[in-house]
Amino acid sequence: MIDRRKFILSSALTGVAGMFSSKMFARDREELIDVKDKPIVISTWDAGIAANKAAWEVLNAKGRALDAVEKGVMVTESSQNCCVGLGANPDRDGFVTLDASIMDENFNCGSVAFLERIKHPISVARRVMEKTPHVMLVGVGAQAFAIAEGFPLEEQKLSAEAEKNYTEWLKKSEYKPPAINVEKTNNHGPFAPAKLESGEWNHDTIGMIAMDASGSLSGSCTTSGAGFKMRGRVGDSPIIGSGLYVDNEVGACVATGQGEDVIRVAGSHSVVEMMRQGLSPEAACKKIIERIAKIKKEKAKDIQVAFIALNKAGQYGAYALHPGFEFALRNKDNEKLIKSKSLFKV
Ligand code: ASP
Which is the closest atom of ligand 1 to the Cα of 262? Predict the structure, then answer.
C-alpha cells in the first residue's frame, strides 16, 4: 500500500488502480513514490527462502538493495546446490562453469560468464560493475580478473552429488530437455533441483530482486546453467536484459528456466517494458511467457521458463510456462513460498 503523505499524485490519477497505471510510470516519473511495504525481497525457487533471509538482514538494517541481492544469492552459491555455485552439476566435459549478473538502481550492471573455480561469481560480477569500464567478462579473463581482485581459486573438483550425477549422465551422454512430469519432480517443476524419472537432474538458478527502505531496486542472478551443457555454453542469467533487468523508475525482473528461450525474447527487459506500459508484475510476466510459448509452438511442452517481477510500487508477481515453479517472498510481515501461476495447467 502507498504512504499517501509522500506519494504525490497528479490530479489526473484517481483511485488505487490509477496509482499503478502506466501514467504513473510514463508521465509522472519525477514523483516521489513511497511504499509502506518496503523493504521487500523476492527470489526464485525454494532455495530463495534461505537466500532471502540473508538479504533481509541487510534490508531490515536499512541497507542498500544492491548489498542485499548480493549477500542473498551468496547463500545459494555456498550451498551444495545441484544448480548454483561450485557444488553444481558440471558441463558435459565434467567442468562446473558459472554465470552471474547484478544490476543496481542507476543502470549500473556487471556480469561474468563461463567462470570456473571461483566460489562467488555474483561478487565478481559486482566487481566488474564497480571496478571496470565493462559490463561483462567471460572465461579465463573473468577468472584472471577475479584472482587479481583477491578471490581464491578453488580446487577443480566436483561435489560428491555432482560426481554421482555426472557418472550417471555419462552412461547415456544424452543432452535434451527432459520431459515434463511435475509429479516426478517433487512439485518443483522440470527445471528444479530434483531428480527426474529418467535419472537426469535438471538445471536451476537463483534470481533475486529487492526494494530497499529508500525505494531503490536492485537484482542479481547466479547459476551453473544447464546441467551437462556443451562446454562454453552461456545461458540467459549473465546477459543483462535477458536473465535480469532493473529500471528503477519502473521495476525489475529476473528469469529462470531454459536460458536460450529467455535470450530469444530479451526476457527480463521485455517484462520490465510491459510494466512500463502499465501491466502488473504478474500480467507482464505472463505476456512474455505467452510470447515464448507462441515462438516455441509445440516445443513449448519440452521446456520450462519462469519470471518473477517487482514494480516501483512494491507490487510483485510471477508467471511460468508450466506448473511447479514457486518463488520466495520476504517483507516485514511475510516469509513464504508462493506458487506461481502457469500457462500450461498440468
Ligand atoms: N536460466 C538458466 C540457464 O539457462 C538455468 C535455469 O534457470 O534453470 O542457464
Answer: 1
